[in-house]
Amino acid sequence: MPLKTWILPLSLAANVSLVTIVGMHATGLDQAPYRHPPPGPPDFIHMAERMADDMPAEDGRRLVASFKARAREFDRGHEAMRNARDAIKSAIARPDFDAKTLKTALDGVRTARDLLDETIAQAMVEAAAAMSPAGREKLGAGPMPGGPPPPPHKR
Fold it and tell me: DSSP string spanning 55-102?
């Protein structure tokens, strides 16, 4: 077969490949999820503010105030989580790997998560105790701690 008969199909195949590659790069589909840094720690005060938007005004203020009053505890929990994750990375990367060290580091994540969960629980209990029935109903209809994680951030 002469080369001329193959030029058009080969050109079309090359163009389709090029468009696919450019399209995947433009939309970020060529990036593996692990290449992106993980999103920062959750901003629980901001979450409370979003939840407060759907509540009666006074109940929303109570919810936000309860979370803001615990800002230091949230910061401590986030710092403990960062430290635990750093300890995990360090334990895994050690040339003289020690499973006990890794287990201790992993336990640090659980401890940090427990601190954050307890702080959220305290804030919600305090706020709910001071809310109207309508505010508690709105609070109960919103996202709950321990629910599904949010979708990953697109970069």
Answer: S-HHHHHHHHHHHHTTHHHHHHHHHHHHHHHHHHHHHHH-TT--HHHH
Answer for the pair 48, 71: CB distance below 8 angstroms, yes or no. no
Q: What is the DSSP letter of 146?
A: T
pTM, full prediction? 0.66
Chain segment 54-104, per-residue pLDDT in tens: 899 999 999 999 999 999 999 999 999 999 999 999 999 999 999 999 999
Instruction: Select from 81, 103, 82 the least CA-distant residue to 92.
Output: 103
Taken in order 62, 130, 139, 137, the sign of the CA dihedral is: negative
Contact of 97 with 33, CB cutoff 8 Å? no
